[in-house]
Design brief:
elongated; 8-stranded antiparallel beta sheet; 10-stranded antiparallel beta sheet
Length: 289
């Protein structure tokens, strides 16, 4: 048998031998690639359409029409019909600002990966998954681009805690006022205040309460102006002032509190509060953690 194989190889030319060698080398490499030990990891990323916000389709964050196309249990399969990518969680915080239509959206993907021990990296389709890197995943007809926030071997909900903050609503943050050097308005329009009361809550897309009005003290708004070299204050029936005690559900990162994972809780910060059908901006004046 060995003699027959030897005679057969002698009859082959150099090109034939080279082709056969390349075939078997390719076969071995392919076998090593497809038979590598694989494992699933959970990748959480904040959706964005590119590294450069000026080149983004939706100016960094996705809009409602895009979010509507994201569905839990969306899957991809590899060549062996095994699930290699699955969308298992979507978390976002509704934003009703009439000036901004984008949302902050986090998704968690269950990803079939191989582990590169030399670099201590997980690989998906030959590409490394790196925290802080912008990565593009494709599931069916949907592309999911974003910045990777964390990579874990198991899925878990992010830890949060409750804190109390106190502050006010200011008209320059919540309405567009034609500047008049002779008149100053104090307080915001009634339609902002009338919809906010003790017990008013804000929820994320999963129904979890992320903000609650614990106490709100309302008082009359007014306008003031100079008349005959005197400062005149007149009650404005269309406005009210509000001092608010607010309970926030926050995450803690690097010893700082964050509301909605992105709004740092610091004195003087103005954070958006998106209630059922309107949005207001709240200025933090005291932190009571």
């Amino acid at each position: 048998m060995l003699k027959k194989i030897k005679k057969f190889l002698i009859k082959l030319g150099f090109i034939d031998l080279l082709g056969i060698s390349l075939f078997f080398i390719t076969l071995i490499i392919a076998a090593l690639f497809f038979l590598r030990e694989s494992s699933y990891v959970y990748v959480t990323l904040e959706i964005s359409s590119g590294n450069n916000s000026f080149q983004n389709l939706w100016f960094y964050k996705p809009t409602d029409w895009y979010i509507e196309n994201l569905k839990i249990n969306m899957k991809n399969k590899d060549l062996f019909k095994i699930d290699d990518l699955e969308l298992i969680d979507i978390l976002y915080y509704p934003n009703l600002d009439f000036k901004i239509s984008e949302q902050t959206v986090f998704v968690t993907l269950k990803v079939k990966t191989t582990f590169n021990k030399r670099n201590n990296q997980y690989l998906y389709q030959g590409q490394p998954l790196l925290v802080g890197d912008h990565h593009i995943f494709k599931i069916g007809s949907t592309v999911i681009p974003g910045v990777i926030h964390n990579i874990n071997t198991s899925f878990f909900e992010p830890k949060t805690q409750k804190i109390l903050v106190e502050g006010t609503l200011e008209n320059e943050d919540n309405e567009e006022i034609e500047r008049d050097a002779e008149v100053r308005f104090v307080g915001v329009k009634n339609y902002f205040i009338d919809g906010v009361n003790s017990g008013s809550i804000i929820k994320n897309n999963k129904g979890k309460v992320i903000a609650e009005i614990i106490r709100i003290d309302k008082s009359a708004g007014y306008k003031e102006f100079i008349y005959n070299n005197s400062l005149i204050k007149i009650i404005d029936p269309e406005r009210k002032q509000a001092n608010i005690l607010l309970e926030l559900d926050v995450s803690k990162v690097n010893n700082h509190y964050f509301y909605r994972r992105e709004d740092k809780i610091v004195l003087g910060k103005k954070i958006p509060l998106s209630f059922d059908n309107f949005n207001i901006y709240f200025k933090i004046e005291k932190i009571l953690d």
